[in-house]
Amino acid sequence: MNFLSTASNLTNCQDEEAVVLSNTRMLQDPSGRLLYIGDSAVLSFLQYIRMIVESVVGQSPFTQDPMRHMIVENTVSLPPNIRHTHLLPDRQTANVLVDSYFTNINGLVEICHRKTFMITLEQCYTDPLSIDPNWLCLLHLMFAIGLVMASPVPGSQEDSIIKKLRADQSVDRAEMFYANAKHLSDPSTGFEDSGFWSIQALTLMSVYMLAVSRRNAASAYYGMAVRSAFALGLHREETMCIFGGAEQSVRRNLWRSLFVLDRFLSTSMGRPTAIRESDCSGTTLLTGEKAPFPQAPFPTAANATFTSPNAVGLEASVRSCHVIGVILEKVYSQRKISTKLAQEIADDCKGWPKALDPSLNHRQAHSASREQGIAILHVNLFYCHSIILLTRPFFLFLMNKKYQSPGETSQRVHVSRMEKFAGACVVASTQSIALVQSARESGYLSQRNPFVLYFLFAASLVVLSNEFCSLYQNPNATPSLATAISIMRYFSEQDPQACRLLVILTSFRDVVARQQSIRAQQEDITRASGVISPSTPSLAEDNNDAMANLFQGGMPFSNGNRVISSPLAGFNTVRCDSQQTSFSPPNASISQLNNQFSPANQWPLSRQNSIDAFFDLARVSSHPNSSASNDGNESINNDEIDFEALWHFPQTNSGVATPGNISGMTPGSIGGTQLNMHEVRGISDSHVPLFGLTNTGFGGTNKPW
What we know:
Elements: E1 4-5, E2 17-18, E3 25-28, E4 34-37, H1 42-57, H2 91-104, H3 114-126, H4 133-149, H5 157-167, H6 173-185, H7 196-211, H8 215-231, H9 245-269, H10 309-332, E5 337-338, H11 339-348, H12 352-355, H13 370-404, H14 406-410, H15 417-442, H16 450-469, H17 477-492, H18 496-528, E6 536-539, H19 546-552, E7 563-564, E8 573-576, H20 591-594, E9 640-641, H21 659-663, E10 669-670, E11 673-674
Parallel strand pairs: 2-9
Antiparallel strand pairs: 1-9, 2-5, 3-4, 6-8, 7-8, 10-11
Helix pairs in contact: 1-16, 2-4, 4-6, 4-7, 7-8, 7-9, 8-9, 9-10, 10-13, 13-15, 13-16, 15-16, 15-17, 16-17, 16-18, 17-18
């Protein structure tokens, strides 16, 4: 198959370019509806990985999962005899739930000032008849979110309160709070004349729907909130002058919360964004410096009174979401990317090290309070995912190319810029897992956090995919994957969506383990014959603080080999021997990851040590004649790569040994049992298929994705 466009040879200065795979999907929810999942969503990435895996090793439980055509949309119904009493819980329970809400959404959503809200809460319990029903609606929504996302310290008084609320399996108390909120004052029914409170309520309803795995409903409520916000002028700075300082702060933070939700929903579901930054004016999204990035909002005489501590994390998330928005617009909407464009996007976003507040440094995670730790987790995960989103197309192309043109990739001596971006995708994914593990070790990781769940799954798939195809030797792969699966199992105790994702990860892990075993056998045969195997780029390892070295360019030498410079500051690849990193069972030691986060008191609070330095590409020139560009790109810089052609996979790849070839299992079997193809449809039925859709419906059991 010819992957290289002849038109690309017309110029000698064109950078590597690839068309983003049009791997959109239509997935069925429990009601039978087909829901659109676009290119940027991890579910589309998963489908493409399944196609590659099947073309290489044949069918397996991972590729032929009967629920692969479904999407998790949780359904909860209250008993018919339940009455909406609107009774408030006791004050202590209310405090626990409200505290859980503000803690677990820190750095992402701020619909009101916490101190002001707590004053009204006190009044609610001392003089309940004076409270506006609209405010009570917001309170019950906070109760619902707080209960779903609560992660109290085991054995604490808060823990006993949460356990009591969750004890009755016949009634979902969180759903009760949500139903009470809608019964008190449903913001969706008064959409035509909605006010500011309804935007707050719709935003909370969207967050709750995300937390309980109802993503499509979350998107619908969010869309209503954004349209109402446009009507009230929250996106325009000139509308602020008629409000006081406190109201301006609340309006601005609510709009920024909607912006964060917009970018997350668009990314995770592959759907168009609802907010265009060009429609926003003044400081509605950004403050301080000119775009693209502001300085962090340190207290000044003008904002010290009304800027809450939570707003610092929200500011950082907004900056990350700006990056994500640029990537969605310039890459995934256009469905093509080049190394030049990737470099330009990264150069435009080089202000993170200076803008990130020192309190949000990842090294502060272990010593931070629960609320601050959650903000650190959210902010850094958002930014890591922006890197993954930008570099994943390069990773996909090289992964496919390795199997479509194995001779070409094995003969490469230099590391091209595309390979460096692809390697950065693996590094950012590994660090995402480390961030989540740090939060779990610190004891504040909720079992139902839709944002963390999504980022963890996306990162885990990249690390597993790299282990499957061995594009890069990742020294931290074994502990990272053991950690990811362990955390996903921890999530699955409360989250139905995590249960599904755990099945996917474990089935993929099994395929990877078999493939690595086959690869080891092949290498033993090769070494015995005296043939020298081609080397594989290695991600340099550091056991002290991997993130600091990654983001600051201080990655050490690995096995005495030369560290090759990377377009991503701090990321380097190393040429080493062909020995593969073995994949360990899920209970493998995770001590390597534990050492990646050093105690905070060993490091000064400095903006220059922030996680954002990973994306500071100013050190690397994109000029074709620069020394940074002269790193082996010459052989590929003039070629334009068409990703659309990569959808045409052969059924099997005869050049790569498969488990069936060695163990006797045929390509059309799972675990030695032959599959009937009329029972389970293939995953590469057409160019852009409605995966698994037939006139008779879906194959397999009718369970959610």
